[in-house]
Amino acid sequence: MTKFSVLILGSASAAPTLTRNQTAQLINIDEQYYLMDCGEGTQLRLREHKIKIQRINHIFISHLHGDHYLGLIGLIQTMHLLGRTSELTIYCPSNIQEIVEVNLRVSESHLKYPIVYKSVNPKKSELVYENDKLEVISIPLKHRIACSGYLFKEKPKPRRINPKAINAHNIPKYQINKIKLGGDYTAENGEFINNRRLTLDGLPSFSYAFCSDTKYFESIIPIIKDVDLLYHEATFTEEHADRASKTYHSTAKQAAKIAKKSNAKQLIIGHFSNRYPDLNVLLRESKTVFEKTKIAEEGKFFDVTFSK
Amino acid sequence: MTKFSVLILGSASAAPTLTRNQTAQLINIDEQYYLMDCGEGTQLRLREHKIKIQRINHIFISHLHGDHYLGLIGLIQTMHLLGRTSELTIYCPSNIQEIVEVNLRVSESHLKYPIVYKSVNPKKSELVYENDKLEVISIPLKHRIACSGYLFKEKPKPRRINPKAINAHNIPKYQINKIKLGGDYTAENGEFINNRRLTLDGLPSFSYAFCSDTKYFESIIPIIKDVDLLYHEATFTEEHADRASKTYHSTAKQAAKIAKKSNAKQLIIGHFSNRYPDLNVLLRESKTVFEKTKIAEEGKFFDVTFSK
User: Fold this and answer.
1) What is the pLDDT of residue B308?
2) What's the pTM?
3) Among A37, A67, A213, A228, which one carries the catalytic annotation?
Protein backbone atom coordinates (compact mmCIF):
# COMPACT_ATOMS: atom_id res chain seq x y z
CA MET A 1 0.00 0.00 0.00
CA THR A 2 1.20 3.48 -0.77
CA LYS A 3 2.20 5.63 2.13
CA PHE A 4 0.61 9.04 1.72
CA SER A 5 0.37 11.22 4.78
CA VAL A 6 0.33 14.81 5.94
CA LEU A 7 2.02 16.01 9.11
CA ILE A 8 0.81 19.36 10.42
CA LEU A 9 3.70 21.55 11.61
CA GLY A 10 1.74 24.77 12.11
CA SER A 11 -1.87 25.90 12.33
CA ALA A 12 -1.68 29.57 13.37
CA SER A 13 -2.66 32.47 11.20
CA ALA A 14 -0.71 35.72 11.37
CA ALA A 15 1.48 35.85 14.51
CA PRO A 16 2.67 32.59 16.06
CA THR A 17 1.63 31.83 19.64
CA LEU A 18 3.15 29.65 22.32
CA THR A 19 0.90 26.76 21.30
CA ARG A 20 0.44 27.32 17.58
CA ASN A 21 3.08 27.71 14.93
CA GLN A 22 2.75 29.32 11.55
CA THR A 23 1.71 27.32 8.53
CA ALA A 24 3.85 24.40 7.42
CA GLN A 25 3.02 20.81 6.50
CA LEU A 26 5.12 17.83 5.57
CA ILE A 27 3.67 15.57 2.91
CA ASN A 28 5.14 12.09 2.78
CA ILE A 29 4.42 9.99 -0.30
CA ASP A 30 6.32 6.71 -0.14
CA GLU A 31 9.15 8.38 1.79
CA GLN A 32 9.43 11.25 -0.68
CA TYR A 33 9.04 14.44 1.36
CA TYR A 34 7.30 17.58 0.15
CA LEU A 35 7.16 20.68 2.34
CA MET A 36 4.07 22.83 2.06
CA ASP A 37 4.66 26.41 3.23
CA CYS A 38 7.38 27.31 5.67
CA GLY A 39 6.44 29.75 8.44
CA GLU A 40 9.04 31.06 10.89
CA GLY A 41 10.49 28.25 12.99
CA THR A 42 9.59 25.44 10.58
CA GLN A 43 13.13 24.01 10.70
CA LEU A 44 12.72 23.52 14.45
CA ARG A 45 9.33 21.84 14.00
CA LEU A 46 10.94 19.44 11.51
CA ARG A 47 13.69 18.75 14.00
CA GLU A 48 11.17 18.10 16.77
CA HIS A 49 9.55 15.46 14.58
CA LYS A 50 12.95 13.98 13.68
CA ILE A 51 12.36 14.67 9.99
CA LYS A 52 15.54 14.40 7.93
CA ILE A 53 15.47 17.78 6.22
CA GLN A 54 17.80 16.73 3.41
CA ARG A 55 15.08 14.41 2.18
CA ILE A 56 12.95 17.42 1.33
CA ASN A 57 13.59 18.14 -2.34
CA HIS A 58 10.50 20.18 -3.14
CA ILE A 59 9.09 23.13 -1.21
CA PHE A 60 5.73 24.56 -2.21
CA ILE A 61 4.99 28.10 -1.02
CA SER A 62 1.39 29.24 -1.30
CA HIS A 63 2.07 32.98 -1.06
CA LEU A 64 4.44 35.56 0.30
CA HIS A 65 2.75 36.56 3.53
CA GLY A 66 5.32 36.21 6.29
CA ASP A 67 3.47 33.49 8.17
CA HIS A 68 3.85 31.20 5.14
CA TYR A 69 7.49 31.70 4.14
CA LEU A 70 9.63 33.39 6.82
CA GLY A 71 11.19 30.08 7.87
CA LEU A 72 12.46 29.36 4.37
CA ILE A 73 15.80 31.18 4.50
CA GLY A 74 16.76 29.54 7.80
CA LEU A 75 15.86 26.12 6.44
CA ILE A 76 17.85 26.72 3.25
CA GLN A 77 20.87 27.81 5.29
CA THR A 78 20.64 24.87 7.68
CA MET A 79 20.45 22.47 4.72
CA HIS A 80 23.67 24.08 3.53
CA LEU A 81 25.37 23.90 6.94
CA LEU A 82 24.51 20.22 7.14
CA GLY A 83 26.30 19.57 3.86
CA ARG A 84 23.50 19.36 1.32
CA THR A 85 24.56 18.97 -2.30
CA SER A 86 21.33 17.81 -3.94
CA GLU A 87 19.02 20.12 -5.81
CA LEU A 88 16.12 21.85 -4.08
CA THR A 89 13.11 23.08 -6.03
CA ILE A 90 10.90 25.87 -4.72
CA TYR A 91 7.45 26.50 -6.19
CA CYS A 92 5.78 29.84 -5.62
CA PRO A 93 3.27 32.11 -7.38
CA SER A 94 5.43 35.17 -6.58
CA ASN A 95 9.08 36.05 -6.85
CA ILE A 96 10.51 34.05 -3.95
CA GLN A 97 13.84 33.92 -5.78
CA GLU A 98 14.40 37.61 -5.10
CA ILE A 99 13.85 37.06 -1.36
CA VAL A 100 16.16 34.06 -1.20
CA GLU A 101 18.89 35.70 -3.24
CA VAL A 102 18.98 38.98 -1.33
CA ASN A 103 19.37 37.05 1.93
CA LEU A 104 22.11 34.84 0.52
CA ARG A 105 23.88 37.89 -0.88
CA VAL A 106 23.94 39.92 2.34
CA SER A 107 25.18 36.96 4.34
CA GLU A 108 27.72 36.15 1.61
CA SER A 109 26.43 32.58 1.62
CA HIS A 110 27.52 30.41 -1.26
CA LEU A 111 25.33 27.33 -1.19
CA LYS A 112 26.87 24.03 -2.16
CA TYR A 113 23.59 22.90 -3.71
CA PRO A 114 21.48 24.33 -6.51
CA ILE A 115 18.05 25.86 -5.98
CA VAL A 116 15.60 25.72 -8.86
CA TYR A 117 12.73 28.20 -8.76
CA LYS A 118 9.46 27.24 -10.42
CA SER A 119 7.14 30.13 -11.03
CA VAL A 120 3.50 29.17 -10.50
CA ASN A 121 0.82 31.04 -12.42
CA PRO A 122 -1.55 32.37 -9.72
CA LYS A 123 -4.38 32.81 -12.24
CA LYS A 124 -4.47 29.37 -13.83
CA SER A 125 -4.49 25.80 -12.59
CA GLU A 126 -1.54 23.98 -14.10
CA LEU A 127 0.71 20.99 -13.64
CA VAL A 128 3.67 22.28 -11.64
CA TYR A 129 5.46 19.01 -10.87
CA GLU A 130 5.24 15.36 -11.81
CA ASN A 131 7.17 12.17 -11.42
CA ASP A 132 6.27 8.60 -12.39
CA LYS A 133 3.77 8.30 -9.55
CA LEU A 134 2.57 11.79 -8.78
CA GLU A 135 1.22 14.98 -10.23
CA VAL A 136 1.11 18.30 -8.40
CA ILE A 137 -1.40 20.75 -9.80
CA SER A 138 -1.72 24.36 -8.70
CA ILE A 139 -5.01 25.71 -7.35
CA PRO A 140 -5.49 29.45 -7.89
CA LEU A 141 -6.90 30.85 -4.64
CA LYS A 142 -8.50 34.20 -3.86
CA HIS A 143 -6.40 36.09 -1.34
CA ARG A 144 -5.07 39.62 -0.93
CA ILE A 145 -1.90 38.79 -2.84
CA ALA A 146 -1.06 36.12 -5.46
CA CYS A 147 -1.76 32.80 -3.76
CA SER A 148 -1.88 29.20 -4.95
CA GLY A 149 -2.94 26.00 -3.31
CA TYR A 150 -1.61 22.67 -4.50
CA LEU A 151 -3.28 19.38 -5.36
CA PHE A 152 -1.14 16.27 -4.86
CA LYS A 153 -2.59 13.51 -6.98
CA GLU A 154 -1.22 10.03 -7.39
CA LYS A 155 -1.26 8.78 -10.97
CA PRO A 156 -3.35 5.65 -11.72
CA LYS A 157 -1.46 2.63 -10.50
CA PRO A 158 -0.67 -0.36 -12.76
CA ARG A 159 -2.84 -3.48 -12.69
CA ARG A 160 -1.51 -6.26 -10.48
CA ILE A 161 -0.86 -9.92 -11.31
CA ASN A 162 -3.75 -12.13 -10.19
CA PRO A 163 -1.98 -15.21 -8.76
CA LYS A 164 -5.10 -17.37 -8.91
CA ALA A 165 -5.64 -16.69 -12.62
CA ILE A 166 -1.94 -17.21 -13.35
CA ASN A 167 -2.09 -20.64 -11.69
CA ALA A 168 -5.40 -21.58 -13.29
CA HIS A 169 -4.00 -20.89 -16.75
CA ASN A 170 -0.60 -22.42 -16.04
CA ILE A 171 1.18 -19.29 -17.23
CA PRO A 172 4.93 -19.93 -17.47
CA LYS A 173 7.08 -17.76 -15.17
CA TYR A 174 8.96 -16.09 -18.01
CA GLN A 175 5.69 -14.55 -19.23
CA ILE A 176 4.81 -12.87 -15.93
CA ASN A 177 6.79 -9.70 -16.53
CA LYS A 178 5.18 -9.16 -19.90
CA ILE A 179 1.74 -9.55 -18.31
CA LYS A 180 2.68 -7.16 -15.51
CA LEU A 181 3.47 -4.58 -18.16
CA GLY A 182 -0.01 -5.02 -19.67
CA GLY A 183 0.58 -7.81 -22.22
CA ASP A 184 -2.02 -10.43 -23.12
CA TYR A 185 -1.16 -14.16 -23.24
CA THR A 186 -1.61 -16.79 -25.91
CA ALA A 187 -1.41 -20.33 -24.60
CA GLU A 188 0.33 -23.19 -26.43
CA ASN A 189 -3.08 -24.53 -27.43
CA GLY A 190 -3.75 -21.19 -29.10
CA GLU A 191 -6.16 -19.85 -26.48
CA PHE A 192 -5.99 -16.04 -26.25
CA ILE A 193 -6.23 -14.68 -22.72
CA ASN A 194 -6.79 -10.94 -22.34
CA ASN A 195 -4.54 -9.17 -19.81
CA ARG A 196 -7.53 -8.12 -17.72
CA ARG A 197 -8.36 -11.79 -17.01
CA LEU A 198 -4.86 -12.32 -15.58
CA THR A 199 -4.62 -9.16 -13.53
CA LEU A 200 -6.42 -7.29 -10.80
CA ASP A 201 -7.28 -3.61 -10.67
CA GLY A 202 -4.40 -1.37 -9.65
CA LEU A 203 -4.31 -0.15 -6.08
CA PRO A 204 -6.34 2.98 -5.53
CA SER A 205 -4.70 6.35 -6.11
CA PHE A 206 -5.06 9.08 -3.54
CA SER A 207 -5.11 12.83 -3.54
CA TYR A 208 -4.54 15.69 -1.13
CA ALA A 209 -5.44 19.33 -1.69
CA PHE A 210 -3.94 22.24 0.26
CA CYS A 211 -6.02 25.43 0.11
CA SER A 212 -4.69 28.30 2.18
CA ASP A 213 -5.09 31.30 2.29
CA THR A 214 -8.33 32.07 0.51
CA LYS A 215 -11.74 33.56 0.84
CA TYR A 216 -14.71 31.36 -0.10
CA PHE A 217 -14.00 30.67 -3.75
CA GLU A 218 -16.08 28.16 -5.68
CA SER A 219 -13.78 28.20 -8.70
CA ILE A 220 -11.51 25.75 -6.90
CA ILE A 221 -14.23 23.07 -6.75
CA PRO A 222 -13.70 21.53 -10.20
CA ILE A 223 -9.94 21.35 -9.55
CA ILE A 224 -10.24 19.50 -6.24
CA LYS A 225 -13.33 17.42 -7.16
CA ASP A 226 -13.44 14.07 -5.30
CA VAL A 227 -10.23 14.73 -3.41
CA ASP A 228 -9.48 12.22 -0.64
CA LEU A 229 -8.24 14.76 1.90
CA LEU A 230 -8.86 18.46 1.68
CA TYR A 231 -7.04 21.00 3.84
CA HIS A 232 -8.96 24.25 3.71
CA GLU A 233 -8.19 27.28 5.80
CA ALA A 234 -10.80 28.27 8.38
CA THR A 235 -9.39 31.40 9.96
CA PHE A 236 -12.71 32.52 11.45
CA THR A 237 -16.16 31.38 12.55
CA GLU A 238 -19.33 32.68 10.89
CA GLU A 239 -19.59 35.22 13.69
CA HIS A 240 -16.64 36.96 12.04
CA ALA A 241 -17.73 36.33 8.44
CA ASP A 242 -17.38 40.03 7.63
CA ARG A 243 -13.83 40.09 8.84
CA ALA A 244 -13.14 36.88 6.89
CA SER A 245 -14.42 38.48 3.72
CA LYS A 246 -12.51 41.73 4.24
CA THR A 247 -9.22 39.95 4.92
CA TYR A 248 -9.74 37.37 2.14
CA HIS A 249 -10.03 34.47 4.54
CA SER A 250 -12.69 31.79 5.09
CA THR A 251 -14.97 30.74 7.91
CA ALA A 252 -15.16 27.14 9.09
CA LYS A 253 -18.60 26.87 7.52
CA GLN A 254 -17.29 28.10 4.18
CA ALA A 255 -14.46 25.55 4.30
CA ALA A 256 -17.06 22.86 4.94
CA LYS A 257 -19.19 24.05 2.02
CA ILE A 258 -16.20 23.75 -0.30
CA ALA A 259 -15.53 20.24 1.03
CA LYS A 260 -19.14 19.24 0.47
CA LYS A 261 -19.47 20.75 -2.99
CA SER A 262 -16.20 19.21 -4.12
CA ASN A 263 -17.20 15.80 -2.73
CA ALA A 264 -14.06 15.57 -0.60
CA LYS A 265 -13.80 12.41 1.50
CA GLN A 266 -12.36 14.20 4.51
CA LEU A 267 -11.71 17.81 5.49
CA ILE A 268 -9.06 19.22 7.77
CA ILE A 269 -9.27 22.85 8.79
CA GLY A 270 -6.46 25.12 9.97
CA HIS A 271 -4.89 28.61 9.89
CA PHE A 272 -6.84 29.62 12.94
CA SER A 273 -7.10 33.18 14.19
CA ASN A 274 -5.71 33.31 17.70
CA ARG A 275 -9.02 34.75 18.92
CA TYR A 276 -10.22 31.13 19.32
CA PRO A 277 -8.51 29.50 22.29
CA ASP A 278 -10.96 26.60 21.93
CA LEU A 279 -10.81 25.27 18.37
CA ASN A 280 -13.92 23.18 18.92
CA VAL A 281 -16.07 26.17 17.98
CA LEU A 282 -14.57 25.99 14.51
CA LEU A 283 -14.85 22.23 14.38
CA ARG A 284 -18.51 22.24 15.41
CA GLU A 285 -19.35 24.92 12.86
CA SER A 286 -17.71 22.96 10.07
CA LYS A 287 -19.41 19.73 11.07
CA THR A 288 -22.85 21.29 10.70
CA VAL A 289 -22.16 21.22 6.97
CA PHE A 290 -19.51 18.52 6.56
CA GLU A 291 -19.36 15.83 9.23
CA LYS A 292 -15.95 14.41 8.34
CA THR A 293 -13.99 17.42 9.51
CA LYS A 294 -10.91 17.35 11.68
CA ILE A 295 -8.70 20.01 13.22
CA ALA A 296 -5.27 20.36 11.60
CA GLU A 297 -3.38 21.00 14.82
CA GLU A 298 0.39 20.94 15.42
CA GLY A 299 1.84 17.46 15.40
CA LYS A 300 -1.29 15.81 14.00
CA PHE A 301 -0.73 13.27 11.33
CA PHE A 302 -3.31 12.50 8.64
CA ASP A 303 -3.26 9.34 6.56
CA VAL A 304 -4.57 10.29 3.12
CA THR A 305 -5.21 6.61 2.27
CA PHE A 306 -7.60 6.26 5.19
CA SER A 307 -10.69 6.96 3.14
CA LYS A 308 -10.55 3.81 1.01
CA MET B 1 19.17 52.13 41.88
CA THR B 2 19.17 51.81 38.14
CA LYS B 3 17.78 48.64 36.67
CA PHE B 4 20.17 47.35 34.05
CA SER B 5 19.87 43.74 33.02
CA VAL B 6 20.38 41.37 30.13
CA LEU B 7 18.02 38.49 29.33
CA ILE B 8 19.49 35.79 27.11
CA LEU B 9 16.99 34.63 24.46
CA GLY B 10 19.37 32.51 22.40
CA SER B 11 22.83 31.00 22.71
CA ALA B 12 23.20 28.77 19.62
CA SER B 13 25.56 29.40 16.77
CA ALA B 14 24.52 28.53 13.22
CA ALA B 15 21.49 26.21 13.20
CA PRO B 16 19.08 26.33 16.14
CA THR B 17 18.57 23.14 18.15
CA LEU B 18 15.72 21.90 20.30
CA THR B 19 17.40 23.31 23.40
CA ARG B 20 19.27 26.35 22.05
CA ASN B 21 17.90 29.23 20.07
CA GLN B 22 19.76 31.57 17.82
CA THR B 23 21.27 34.78 19.14
CA ALA B 24 19.01 37.37 20.72
CA GLN B 25 19.20 39.31 23.97
CA LEU B 26 16.90 41.76 25.65
CA ILE B 27 18.59 44.61 27.47
CA ASN B 28 16.45 46.39 30.04
CA ILE B 29 17.67 49.75 31.32
CA ASP B 30 15.10 51.28 33.64
CA GLU B 31 12.27 49.63 31.69
CA GLN B 32 13.58 50.86 28.35
CA TYR B 33 13.99 47.76 26.19
CA TYR B 34 16.75 47.24 23.64
CA LEU B 35 16.87 44.11 21.50
CA MET B 36 20.29 42.81 20.59
CA ASP B 37 20.23 40.60 17.48
CA CYS B 38 17.14 38.73 16.39
CA GLY B 39 17.62 35.12 15.29
CA GLU B 40 14.74 33.09 13.88
CA GLY B 41 12.00 32.58 16.46
CA THR B 42 12.97 35.57 18.64
CA GLN B 43 9.37 36.84 18.72
CA LEU B 44 8.30 33.56 20.33
CA ARG B 45 11.11 33.75 22.90
CA LEU B 46 9.95 37.27 23.79
CA ARG B 47 6.42 35.96 24.13
CA GLU B 48 7.58 33.10 26.35
CA HIS B 49 9.15 35.63 28.68
CA LYS B 50 6.03 37.83 28.58
CA ILE B 51 8.03 40.73 27.16
CA LYS B 52 5.80 43.47 25.74
CA ILE B 53 7.29 43.73 22.26
CA GLN B 54 5.90 47.22 21.63
CA ARG B 55 8.23 48.50 24.33
CA ILE B 56 11.20 47.64 22.15
CA ASN B 57 12.07 50.82 20.26
CA HIS B 58 15.65 50.01 19.29
CA ILE B 59 16.96 46.86 17.67
CA PHE B 60 20.71 46.41 17.27
CA ILE B 61 21.83 43.86 14.69
CA SER B 62 25.46 42.80 14.85
CA HIS B 63 25.67 41.38 11.33
CA LEU B 64 23.69 39.78 8.55
CA HIS B 65 24.33 36.10 9.13
CA GLY B 66 20.97 34.38 9.29
CA ASP B 67 21.31 33.25 12.90
CA HIS B 68 21.47 36.89 13.98
CA TYR B 69 18.65 38.52 12.00
CA LEU B 70 16.19 36.02 10.46
CA GLY B 71 13.61 36.68 13.17
CA LEU B 72 13.50 40.38 12.42
CA ILE B 73 10.87 40.42 9.66
CA GLY B 74 8.46 38.31 11.69
CA LEU B 75 8.91 40.57 14.71
CA ILE B 76 8.37 43.70 12.61
CA GLN B 77 5.19 42.20 11.13
CA THR B 78 3.85 41.08 14.50
CA MET B 79 4.47 44.58 15.91
CA HIS B 80 2.36 45.85 13.01
CA LEU B 81 -0.41 43.27 13.52
CA LEU B 82 -0.62 44.24 17.17
CA GLY B 83 -1.24 47.87 16.24
CA ARG B 84 2.13 49.54 16.70
CA THR B 85 2.33 53.18 15.70
CA SER B 86 5.55 54.28 17.42
CA GLU B 87 8.86 54.54 15.65
CA LEU B 88 11.29 51.63 15.60
CA THR B 89 15.00 52.19 14.99
CA ILE B 90 17.22 49.45 13.62
CA TYR B 91 21.01 49.67 13.86
CA CYS B 92 23.15 47.53 11.60
CA PRO B 93 26.58 47.65 9.97
CA SER B 94 25.10 46.34 6.68
CA ASN B 95 22.11 47.15 4.55
CA ILE B 96 19.32 45.66 6.64
CA GLN B 97 16.92 48.15 5.09
CA GLU B 98 17.08 46.33 1.77
CA ILE B 99 16.13 43.04 3.47
CA VAL B 100 13.25 44.56 5.40
CA GLU B 101 11.90 46.46 2.43
CA VAL B 102 11.96 43.57 -0.02
CA ASN B 103 10.00 41.45 2.46
CA LEU B 104 7.46 44.20 3.10
CA ARG B 105 7.09 44.76 -0.63
CA VAL B 106 6.43 41.14 -1.61
CA SER B 107 3.88 40.74 1.17
CA GLU B 108 2.32 44.10 0.26
CA SER B 109 2.62 45.10 3.91
CA HIS B 110 2.10 48.75 4.70
CA LEU B 111 3.31 49.29 8.23
CA LYS B 112 1.43 51.75 10.40
CA TYR B 113 4.66 52.76 12.14
CA PRO B 114 7.91 54.23 10.82
CA ILE B 115 11.19 52.34 10.80
CA VAL B 116 14.38 54.36 10.99
CA TYR B 117 17.55 52.66 9.80
CA LYS B 118 20.86 53.70 11.36
CA SER B 119 23.86 52.60 9.40
CA VAL B 120 26.74 51.58 11.67
CA ASN B 121 30.30 51.95 10.40
CA PRO B 122 31.82 48.46 10.77
CA LYS B 123 35.36 49.87 10.67
CA LYS B 124 35.17 52.54 13.34
CA SER B 125 33.88 52.74 16.91
CA GLU B 126 31.29 55.49 17.08
CA LEU B 127 28.36 56.72 19.10
CA VAL B 128 25.30 55.18 17.46
CA TYR B 129 22.62 56.13 19.99
CA GLU B 130 22.25 58.28 23.07
CA ASN B 131 19.60 59.59 25.36
CA ASP B 132 19.87 61.56 28.61
CA LYS B 133 21.08 58.52 30.53
CA LEU B 134 22.73 56.22 28.03
CA GLU B 135 25.25 56.01 25.23
CA VAL B 136 25.52 53.12 22.80
CA ILE B 137 28.87 52.85 21.10
CA SER B 138 29.66 50.45 18.28
CA ILE B 139 32.50 47.94 18.59
CA PRO B 140 34.04 46.92 15.25
CA LEU B 141 34.52 43.14 15.38
CA LYS B 142 36.52 40.82 13.15
CA HIS B 143 34.21 38.39 11.40
CA ARG B 144 33.70 37.04 7.89
CA ILE B 145 31.31 39.84 7.02
CA ALA B 146 30.81 43.38 8.40
CA CYS B 147 30.04 42.91 12.08
CA SER B 148 29.68 45.27 15.02
CA GLY B 149 29.30 44.72 18.72
CA TYR B 150 27.68 47.35 20.91
CA LEU B 151 28.69 48.92 24.21
CA PHE B 152 25.82 50.15 26.39
CA LYS B 153 27.19 52.71 28.77
CA GLU B 154 25.26 54.71 31.30
CA LYS B 155 26.25 58.36 31.42
CA PRO B 156 27.67 59.67 34.73
CA LYS B 157 24.81 60.20 37.13
CA PRO B 158 24.20 63.57 38.86
CA ARG B 159 25.46 64.19 42.41
CA ARG B 160 22.83 63.64 45.09
CA ILE B 161 21.74 65.97 47.89
CA ASN B 162 23.47 65.13 51.19
CA PRO B 163 20.64 65.50 53.75
CA LYS B 164 23.05 65.69 56.68
CA ALA B 165 25.02 68.56 55.16
CA ILE B 166 21.83 70.35 54.16
CA ASN B 167 20.62 70.17 57.75
CA ALA B 168 23.96 71.10 59.26
CA HIS B 169 24.12 74.28 57.18
CA ASN B 170 20.42 75.10 57.58
CA ILE B 171 19.97 75.41 53.83
CA PRO B 172 16.50 76.84 53.05
CA LYS B 173 14.24 74.49 51.08
CA TYR B 174 13.94 76.82 48.10
CA GLN B 175 17.68 76.46 47.48
CA ILE B 176 17.63 72.66 47.23
CA ASN B 177 16.79 72.47 43.53
CA LYS B 178 19.58 74.84 42.63
CA ILE B 179 22.03 72.70 44.60
CA LYS B 180 20.70 69.54 42.97
CA LEU B 181 21.53 71.09 39.61
CA GLY B 182 25.13 71.72 40.78
CA GLY B 183 24.89 75.21 42.32
CA ASP B 184 26.96 76.37 45.28
CA TYR B 185 25.40 78.16 48.27
CA THR B 186 26.16 81.45 49.98
CA ALA B 187 24.69 81.73 53.46
CA GLU B 188 23.12 84.91 54.88
CA ASN B 189 26.27 85.46 56.94
CA GLY B 190 28.25 85.44 53.70
CA GLU B 191 29.77 81.99 54.13
CA PHE B 192 30.42 80.33 50.74
CA ILE B 193 29.67 76.59 50.61
CA ASN B 194 30.88 74.65 47.60
CA ASN B 195 28.33 72.30 45.98
CA ARG B 196 30.51 69.27 46.67
CA ARG B 197 30.18 69.88 50.45
CA LEU B 198 26.38 69.70 50.14
CA THR B 199 26.13 66.69 47.83
CA LEU B 200 27.19 63.09 47.57
CA ASP B 201 28.73 61.30 44.60
CA GLY B 202 26.25 60.24 41.93
CA LEU B 203 25.19 56.63 41.85
CA PRO B 204 27.56 54.41 39.91
CA SER B 205 27.08 54.07 36.16
CA PHE B 206 27.17 50.67 34.55
CA SER B 207 28.11 49.27 31.20
CA TYR B 208 27.46 46.19 29.10
CA ALA B 209 29.35 45.12 26.00
CA PHE B 210 28.03 42.67 23.41
CA CYS B 211 30.74 41.12 21.23
CA SER B 212 29.51 38.53 18.75
CA ASP B 213 30.57 37.23 16.23
CA THR B 214 34.31 37.74 16.19
CA LYS B 215 37.65 36.05 16.14
CA TYR B 216 40.13 36.98 18.88
CA PHE B 217 40.59 40.68 18.25
CA GLU B 218 42.52 42.83 20.71
CA SER B 219 41.50 46.08 19.04
CA ILE B 220 38.23 45.93 20.94
CA ILE B 221 39.98 46.11 24.33
CA PRO B 222 40.33 49.91 24.57
CA ILE B 223 36.66 50.31 23.62
CA ILE B 224 35.32 47.96 26.28
CA LYS B 225 37.94 48.80 28.96
CA ASP B 226 36.58 48.35 32.52
CA VAL B 227 33.17 47.18 31.33
CA ASP B 228 30.90 45.80 34.07
CA LEU B 229 29.51 42.91 32.07
CA LEU B 230 31.06 41.58 28.88
CA TYR B 231 29.28 39.16 26.58
CA HIS B 232 31.85 37.60 24.30
CA GLU B 233 31.18 34.78 21.88
CA ALA B 234 32.88 31.47 22.61
CA THR B 235 31.81 29.24 19.75
CA PHE B 236 34.58 26.68 20.31
CA THR B 237 37.03 25.27 22.84
CA GLU B 238 40.79 25.50 22.33
CA GLU B 239 40.67 21.98 20.90
CA HIS B 240 39.00 23.54 17.85
CA ALA B 241 41.09 26.73 17.81
CA ASP B 242 41.98 26.17 14.16
CA ARG B 243 38.35 25.96 13.19
CA ALA B 244 37.61 29.05 15.30
CA SER B 245 40.27 30.99 13.45
CA LYS B 246 39.16 29.80 10.00
CA THR B 247 35.51 30.65 10.64
CA TYR B 248 36.33 33.96 12.38
CA HIS B 249 35.03 32.82 15.74
CA SER B 250 36.59 32.66 19.22
CA THR B 251 37.41 29.97 21.71
CA ALA B 252 36.30 30.17 25.34
CA LYS B 253 39.90 30.86 26.35
CA GLN B 254 40.17 33.70 23.88
CA ALA B 255 36.95 35.23 25.21
CA ALA B 256 38.43 35.01 28.71
CA LYS B 257 41.65 36.69 27.59
CA ILE B 258 39.69 39.60 26.17
CA ALA B 259 37.76 39.86 29.45
CA LYS B 260 40.98 39.85 31.46
CA LYS B 261 42.85 42.32 29.27
CA SER B 262 39.91 44.71 29.19
CA ASN B 263 39.51 44.48 32.97
CA ALA B 264 35.86 43.40 32.67
CA LYS B 265 34.11 42.76 36.00
CA GLN B 266 32.19 39.76 34.72
CA LEU B 267 32.16 37.71 31.52
CA ILE B 268 29.31 35.78 29.96
CA ILE B 269 30.03 33.48 27.05
CA GLY B 270 27.63 32.29 24.36
CA HIS B 271 27.09 31.45 20.65
CA PHE B 272 28.03 27.85 21.27
CA SER B 273 28.70 25.35 18.51
CA ASN B 274 26.26 22.52 18.87
CA ARG B 275 29.17 20.08 19.07
CA TYR B 276 29.22 20.75 22.83
CA PRO B 277 26.24 19.12 24.52
CA ASP B 278 27.88 19.91 27.87
CA LEU B 279 28.65 23.62 28.04
CA ASN B 280 30.77 23.13 31.14
CA VAL B 281 33.77 22.34 28.94
CA LEU B 282 33.59 25.90 27.63
CA LEU B 283 32.97 27.33 31.08
CA ARG B 284 35.92 25.51 32.62
CA GLU B 285 38.22 26.60 29.83
CA SER B 286 37.24 30.22 30.23
CA LYS B 287 37.64 30.09 34.02
CA THR B 288 41.26 29.00 33.72
CA VAL B 289 41.92 32.55 32.52
CA PHE B 290 39.01 34.56 33.91
CA GLU B 291 37.29 33.22 36.99
CA LYS B 292 34.17 35.37 36.82
CA THR B 293 32.71 33.68 33.76
CA LYS B 294 29.16 32.52 33.35
CA ILE B 295 27.28 30.70 30.61
CA ALA B 296 24.82 32.86 28.65
CA GLU B 297 22.13 30.21 28.29
CA GLU B 298 18.51 30.62 27.20
CA GLY B 299 16.35 32.29 29.82
CA LYS B 300 19.27 33.37 31.99
CA PHE B 301 19.07 36.85 33.37
CA PHE B 302 22.15 38.91 34.22
CA ASP B 303 22.08 41.95 36.46
CA VAL B 304 24.69 44.36 35.12
CA THR B 305 24.67 46.33 38.41
CA PHE B 306 25.72 43.26 40.37
CA SER B 307 29.41 44.07 40.24
CA LYS B 308 29.28 47.20 42.44
Assistant:
1) 61
2) 0.93
3) A67
